[in-house]
Known about the structure:
Layout: E1 6-7, E2 17-19, H1 22-25, E3 31-33, E4 44-50, E5 54-56, E6 67-69, E7 72-73, H2 85-90, H3 97-101, E8 102-106, H4 109-118, E9 127-129, H5 139-143, H6 146-155, E10 160-164, H7 173-182, E11 185-190, H8 196-202, H9 209-221, E12 226-233, H10 241-253, E13 259-263, H11 270-281, H12 286-292, H13 301-318
Parallel strand pairs: 4-8, 6-9, 9-10, 10-11, 11-12, 12-13
Antiparallel strand pairs: 1-4, 2-3, 3-4, 5-6, 7-8
GO molecular function: catalytic activity; iron-sulfur cluster binding; metal ion binding
Domain Radical SAM core: 61-309
Keywords: Iron, Iron-sulfur, Metal-binding
Amino acid sequence: MRWDNLTVRSADSDDHGRAADPALFGADAVVTRTFDTPEFRGITFHEVRARSVLNRVPGASRMPFEWTVNPYRGCTHACVYCFARKTHGYLDLDTGIGFDTQIVVKVNAPELLRRQLASRRWQGDHVAMGTNVDCYQRAEGRYRLMPGIISALTEHANPFSILTKGTLVLRDLDLLTRAARVTDVGISVSVGFTDAELWRTVEPGTPAPERRLDVVRTLGEHGIGCGVLMAPVIPFLSDTPAQLRETVRAIAAAGATSVTPLVLHLRPGAREWFTAWLGRHHPHLVRRYERLYADGAYAPTWYQRRITRQVHELAQEYGIGPWRAGQARRIRPADPAPVAALDEPTQLTLM
Ligand code: SF4
């Protein structure tokens, strides 16, 4: 996709605005803004009006959902390994630092979703969010698109799920609680490891793993069960038995209702960026990665199976899952499969 499903509005730039570079976007009516506050320094926002906000996942996809809503493109969480980097290239934007700093904002997402949900053609299917980039990245603090999106879904009692690394999701706790009264709401938080040093370099724009686990805890305290996508498990950097144990222990302590491990995958776009990072921070691992990922984007099946089995055993040991005593909870369709259900390593392309 380039800018073909985005209807852009006139460049009525304000104090912060300036006309977008037509060569960059292939359009001359994107409103481009920068904000001179510490959290947004160096970030450029491209505000567009989308023609459609409900996206159908291609039939051949391995995704366990059919419809997604993604109000943003690009992500200031800036995870080095992010698989969505490639999609920035579809917009003629840079997949490296550009993915972290050039954020496309579909400013009309809530009103558009409300209209599409009201259409007679819409069947009320489950809608997944946070599947391409994080809908609770820092930009959401400014643009506040998610409250309108959640409200629209709630008004139509439309089931939905959110996957995030952002603590900002707690801002919408009341809305999520209200939604959960009328429809199935599945929230998952992504925490691949708890190593602070690794976090600072490989996920530099994200809240710390402990803060994300606080989100899991807080949601649980408010009656909204929250699963953890243990992603990614990073070969040779977060995969020792002790590291896996510590991560699963912390996830269990936060009260997660499920844990689903995903081993790092490196598709084009992410692969180049991650390999450059590896060369700077862990040069001794470059050859090992070349061997481990010699056959493509995914680690070998034997490796994925090993991680899945280890996490599975740890999850049982720490009592994570639907069998957790005293924590009876319906497993909703929106949840990632509890780890006990994963006989085979999974290759879902989620955060
Ligand atoms: S992995 Fe998720 S949180 Fe990290 S940069 Fe990508 S979309 Fe953002």
